[in-house]
Design brief:
Elements (H helix, E strand, L loop, with lengths): L37 E6 L16 H18 L3 E4 L9 H10 L4 E8 L11 E5 L7 H14 L6 E6 L3 H4 L5 E8 L3 H7 L2 H20 L3
Parallel strand pairs: 1-2, 1-3, 3-6, 4-5
Antiparallel strand pairs: 4-6
Helix pairs in contact: 1-6, 3-6
Length: 219
Amino acid sequence: ALTWTRPDQPLAGRTPFPTEGTPLSPDGLPVVPRGRFRVVIDPGHGGPDPGAVGIGGLRETDVVLDVSLQLARLLQARGVDVVLTRTSEVDVDLPPRVSLANASNADAFVSIHANALSMSRPDVNGIETFYFQGGSSRSRTLAAALQQQMLAISPGSPDRGVRTARFFVIRRTVMPSALVEMGFVTGSLDSRRLADPSFRRRMAIALATGMLLYLQGQR
């Protein structure tokens, strides 16, 4: 079952974010032993903190929550136990996200984000994934698996690489952890894709593929 840190309390008065209506199917995804693994999915930002706001008013929080919820369903369909740090537009501080993850006895943690630069730099696009150098030695393996799958569905988006960083949620979690940046909401190429429900569906499938391939190597 999906779990979260507090009750769903969507913000009133906002236009619903368009999502893909086609039922999700795990067909073709890598297979892992059912009931063997647990992962934590951390949709960045939320509630009064929209994260980055880009071209056309595209909000990071909307993009990452949609992808994260679809990713969770795909992993569950493959028998992976999923813990989500939030499932709606609520604000969750960084320490509770880490505490939830560390109490979950999870095999992996992934924080989902979208990048931004100045609105005057729509030429800057690209995908990158971060891990903490001082963390689990498996964190880089996880980050590389996720990066490879995101790039595969994003032709033309520059590969900004698998890089080290000290973000709180990957520095303080005790399991292999990665933070993905799925593209720039301020980028002319990336923002158009991230605003497209069918692309976000493909992104969720890509992240699920990367996560499952990583888990296959951890048996």
